Amino acid sequence: MTEWDVKKLRILRTLRDRGTVTATAEALLMTPSAVSQQLTNLARQLGVELLEPQGRRVRLTDAAHLVLRHAEAVFAQLERADAELTGYLRGEAGEVRVGAFSTAVPALVVPAVRLLRAEGRPGPDVRVREAEAAQAYELLTAGEVDLALSLAAHAPTARDPRFSLFPLLADPLDVALPAGHPLADAPALRLADLAADRWIFGGSGPWSEITTAACEAAGFVPSRPTAPPAGPRSSPWSRRAWASPSSPGWPPVSSAARAW
């Protein structure tokens, strides 16, 4: 197969446009002898004569014009590739694979993509893969996603060199207390204040893990009923501490308690 040298082809194209070896050398910041040598080497590589004398100058042969017709397509493709590569380096092209748990997709991923598109500039294609929060780091390790949204309960240590962690937001947990609870009207309380209470929260999943981890960080393991209720108002379990993700208008446990 014939070897095509793009650098030498550019010199040949410049000679066609400039007309003389001297003008070509000036345009490319080369010496005339270097231009002549490069074109001689290109002719040898392609196996055809590219130049023929015309008085004190040279002109391109028919073979040289044929070569340049095909080379122009190569130059155009390389220019497009260069533009796409520049866009990729600027974050304006390519593909980003995002792993996210189900509630994070509409709450975080979709608004972020819409914001990028609304700015009116090109951006990478975003491919979303729905996965449980606990799977995020497995997918990253396997190279199946480029970034993942997960929960703090599943996060590795900050010293793990395989990952870069970026906190996005804090989602406080609310604690609901029965109206007759001694701390129901307290202006502020700590999780440790509820260490002696029996707790009701999800039996599995990330919120259960987060609640348990928060209580353990406060110095106790939450005591739970043997049979979890269907909801915080279910009798007789409603006279217990109920932990849930924050709802609009509910203050976090660090500032107040919500009473049923």
What does the model show?
The protein is of the alpha/beta class. The protein has three domains: 6-89, Arc Repressor Mutant, subunit A; 95-154, Periplasmic binding protein-like II (D-Maltodextrin-Binding Protein, domain 2); 172-260, D-Maltodextrin-Binding Protein, domain 2 (3-Layer(aba) Sandwich). The protein is 38% helix and 14% strand. The protein has seven helices and nine strands, in the order αααββαβαβαβββαββ. The protein has helices at 6-18, 21-28, 32-46, 62-89, 104-118, 136-142, 206-217, and strands spanning 51-54, 57-60, 95-100, 125-130, 147-149, 173-177, 199-200, 241-245, 258-259. The strands form three sheets. A four-stranded mixed beta sheet has the order 7-8-6-9, with no helix packed on it. Helix 7 links the parallel strand 7 and strand 8. Helix 1 crosses helix 2 (21-28) and helix 1 crosses helix 4 (62-89). The protein is rod-shaped. The chain starts with 5 loop residues before the first helix and ends with a strand. Residues 231-240 and 244-260 have low confidence and may be disordered. It holds the Pfam family HTH_1. GO terms for molecular function: DNA binding; DNA-binding transcription factor activity. Belongs to the LysR transcriptional regulatory family.
Shape: rod-shaped
Largest sheet: 4 strands, mixed
Determine and state the CATH class of the largest domain. Answer: Alpha Beta
Give the neighbour order of strands across the main sheet.
7-8-6-9
Integer average pLDDT: 79
Oligomer description: single chain
**Number of DSSP helical runs:** 7
What's the count of strands?
9
* CATH superfamily grouping of the largest domain: Periplasmic binding protein-like II
